[in-house]
Amino acid sequence: MGSARLAARLQGDQLFRATRNAWTTARRTDPPRCVTGSFVALGSDAEPTLRSFVHRYLEVMSPAFAKAVADAVTLYTADRLAEVLRSHADTGCDEFIVVPATSDPTMLDHVTAVVESL
Question: Exposure winner among 7, 27, 58, 113, fewest CB in 10 A?
C-alpha cells in the first residue's frame, strides 16, 4: 500500500474512532453511522473523465484547490475502487457513497461488478 493510500486509510480510521469515542463520551447507546464517499469514474477514459469532473466541480472553491484535488484522485480503476471499499470496510465504515463522475449509464454496471467481486 502506497504512503498516500495508507495516510488516507489512517485518517478515515482515526475519524471513525474519534466519532465512536465522542458517541461513548456523550453516553449514546446507539452506534454512530460512519459514512464517507468519493468521486469515481470507471470504464472508457475513466482517468481523464474523473480528473475533469473533479476540477469542474471544485473550481468554484478555488482553481488551485480544484487542480490539486483533480491531480490527486485515484478512483478510476476497478481494482482501486475495490481496494478502497475493502479498506473502508476494514475501518468500520458503514456506508461508502460512490459519487459518479459521469452520467454514462454503464458506470452503474462497472460499479456493480466491483461490489459483486468483494
Answer: 27
